[in-house]
Design a protein that fits this description.
Length: 92
Amino acid sequence: MVKKIVLIGGPCSGKSALINRLGGLGYRVFKEMARRILEERKEKALTKEELIERQQIIFYRQLKREMAVQEEAGGMVFFDRGIYDGAAYSTK
């Protein structure tokens, strides 16, 4: 079983900096999913529908990522944000 450690906190609180440092030290890390999705979809018009779509994509990709890691044996992995962050940002 993999030990999952999720870094949470407000914007600009140092989560990504810590993830980068841990990765540099050789730990297995997963960077924030939202950054990747925003980059992938930057050409799309920022409508209300697009905002909802982005949050759904972030949530489901993060869920898939966390579930895949859960199936692995042993070790430790650090996440920059987790599935609960996506759920929180998806609520009104």
